[in-house]
Amino acid sequence: MTSSVESDWVSRFADEVIAEADRRAPGKPIVCASGLSPSGPIHLGNLREVMTPHLVADEIRRRGRECVHIISWDDYDRYRKVPAGIDEAWAEHIGKPLTAVPAPPGSAFPNWAEHYKAAMIDSLAELGVVFRGISQTSMYTSGAYRDQILLAMRQRAKIDEILGRYRTKAPVSKRETDEAAAEAAEGSGAASEDDGGSATGYYPYKPYCTACNKDLTTVTAYDDETTEMSFTCGACGHSETVLLKDFNHGKLVWKVDWPMRWSYEGVVFEPSGVDHSSPGSSFVVGGQIVKEVFDGEQPIGPMYAFVGIVGMAKMSSSKGGVPTPADAMRIMEAPLLRWLYARRRPNQSFKVAFDQEIQRLYDEWDSLAAKAAAGTAPPADAIAYDRARRTAEIELPVTPRPLPYRMLASVADITTGEPTQMLRILHEIDPARPIESLDEVRPRLDKATAWATGQLPVDQRTRVLDKPDLELLDSLGADQRRSLDLLLAGLGEHWSLEGLTTLVYGVPKQMLGLPMDVKPTAELKAVQRTFFVLLYRLLVGKETGPRLPTLLLATGADRVRVLLSGS
Ligand SMILES: [Zn+2]
Fold first, then answer.
1. Exposed e or buried b for every residue in 267-291, given b needs 16+ CB within 10 A?
2. Nearest 10 degrees: CA dihedral of 315, 440, 408, 435?
3. What is the Cα Rg of the chain in Å?
């Protein structure tokens, strides 16, 4: 039904993935995958790792095909560094599996990985992302990958040879480049893990030390017949000999682990970040290893561009500059966040706005919603809108009366988010259809309130004056005085958003002796601008502010009278 004629990038990938799945494993559920490392807060950039396969899997399910979206939690990766804002005492855990590191202070979760996973799981539920989470700690420590591990060890010479094809002549600088890219990618730090080479030979498996639980181990010997493996620990000096066929306390190095899982899960689609795109990258090397060692196939793997953030200065000081999906959904509704990821092809970068830009974004969203409802949206825009607001399983919650975000933000700003005041103002916006409960404008109101009270810089907040600026009022000329009187005289009759809009634009027309329906001229516009500046100065003591009709409603008629007349 959804054919490629009018298709968006999601439909095109779905076509490709279905064709590929039918070739590889006909009749089986189609598998799309994401990998996330809960090494710290999982940020908005990493959300693309999930949203790209989510949207493709969702399209496949919309077409009635069975499709599983796996999220592999890389929680058996080593703890690499203590993030900003965490007690330096956590440095003693570097080298342990993320699930063996205590959770950050004050957390209710049993360990580091669970703490950061939990926040992401909540956000994914809010975003309507249906997935099957797979804990790599559970998989490795239960012995699920036993056969694959023994196979990789038997094939270690071949793996070493494949890796050798990509090792550069200057491995040190290459590694540094990888590490810098991995740092930039935050969550996908596994890309910089060593590939298993050491002075004692090449081994693709790295045990966590059974004494100190760190991965600073070196395998010193391995016997293919018996699976007897000896290792020493560079952290505590422990050395041990174990039978790998019975041992569940270590993992394959990343460049082998990833292709092993492609084969194990039968992954057909898995995107990766730009840090995985270079010639010796995990994705490229993995493509060789999955074929030559695990007898599997590399997934279709588009490379996605990074997602930037604008206007997060305030939060960055307290949270290490890493906004999470939950941070975004404090100021925007889930469908809007989905839309940002759905409307851009994975290789297009985009920015998530935490500053004033969010108001323009919401205007664009509302305008698209109106066009979609009227059936006049261009096909690709209509599809992106549809992907944003529902999945094959659910419709995402919407605000029953989606008033403009910029208006709600102004109301929240002026009232500092005080609910009774906000309801009074919103009730008066449209007398024909008064808002009786704030629930009618939720959750959008809550998001706009969080934005106005949490993101809007203090110097841009609006504070209505406590008492009239008598000095300014005394200095006004007769014309200015008359314009204020005209406004005050019209307040009662025009006390609604629409009415006040007519009034504030109408007073200058009256002053110029023009009819109310006159086309705006340059002269009229100049007089209007001067009039608006006067109102702002008298109401908020500045030359700009929220849109005047909203400001007047928010200020209340009695207070407007006092501030504009002096008594
Ligand atoms: Zn040790």
1. bbbbbbbbbbebebbbbbbbbbbbe
2. -150
3. 30
pLDDT tens for 518-548 read 998 999 999 999 999 999 999 999 999 999 9
CA dist 192 and 176 (Å) reads 8
Q: How many A from CA of 195 to the centre of ligand 1?
A: 20
Cβ-contact 98, 79 below 8 angstroms: yes
3-class state of residue 194 by DSSP: coil
DSSP string across 207-237: EPPTTT--S-EEEEEE-TTT-EEEEEETTT-
Residue 561's closest CA among 494, 498, 468? Answer: 468
End-to-end CA distance of the chain: 68
Cα–ligand 1 centroid distance for 277 (angstroms): 34
Q: 76 alpha carbon to ligand 1 midpoint, in Å?
A: 17
| 213 CA from centroid of ligand 1 (Å) | 6
Q: How far is the CA of 210 from the centre of ligand 1 (A)?
A: 7
**Phi, psi at 233, each rounded to 5°:** -110, 125
Separation of CA 217 and ligand 1 centre (Å): 7
360-413: per-residue pLDDT in tens? 999 999 999 999 999 999 999 999 999 999 999 999 999 999 999 999 999 999
> Ligand 1 centroid to 231 CA: how many Å?
10
Stated pTM of the model: 0.89
Place of tokens 């979609």: 372
Rounded to an integer, what distance in angstroms lies between the CA atom of residue 430 and that of residue 428?
6
Contact 212, 218 (CB under 8 A): no
CA 392, distance to chain mean position in Å, is: 21
For residue 430, the surrounding DSSP H or E stretch is none
Positive or negative CA dihedral for 164, 168, 169, 173? negative
Instruction: Calculate how far, in angstroms, residue 105's C-alpha sits from the geometric centre of ligand 1.
Output: 25
Q: How far does the centroid of ligand 1 lie from the alpha carbon of residue 433, in Å?
A: 70
How far does the centroid of ligand 1 lie from the alpha carbon of residue 78, in Å?
A: 14
